[in-house]
Design goal:
Shape: globular
Number of strands: 0
Helix content: 55-70%
Number of domains: 1
Largest sheet: none
Number of helices: 7
Amino acid sequence: MTATALSPRLPAQDFDLPKWLRIAAASGAMVLLALCTYGFLRWMLGFAPATPWVRDVALATHLITVIPAIPLGTYVILSRKGGARHKLLGKIWLSLMFITAIATVFIRNINDGQFSWIHLFTLLTFIAVPQAIISARQGRIEAHKKHLRNFFIGALVIAGLTAFAPGRTMWQWAFGDRAIEQPSHD
């Protein structure tokens, strides 16, 4: 049996999201990427307050995987579906998001070392990634689209924007004042 027989070839599909949703997803992702870039540059150039907990391997892994996942996920969700490029980039994006979620299990800089409400997005990721893969492999493309659309908006755009809530690392990098002493998060 050939690989093609095991995995039926589906025709490449046109854009599947309504125009308003494509615009909203792209806008949210662009704002998130701009905020991340701005905050990261402020931190790298020494304009952001000290955040000694950032040396934590989990937080570094989270940032290294989630920042490229923003433009990549935006491209995958907004581009034509079903082709080899879509499948390859989708696998890379899901891998980045899964690694990001694993890293967040070990990030507990706020809430006295306990899980916080934002860790619900970690749980969402652990559920959504397998659902998306299984539905695609079973040929349930409408379910696959629905899972990934909701996952992209919830776990990437909404969760990413909540990373800029006051007191969180990204908020401190983007908007914090070096002159004001920040909590140690130890």
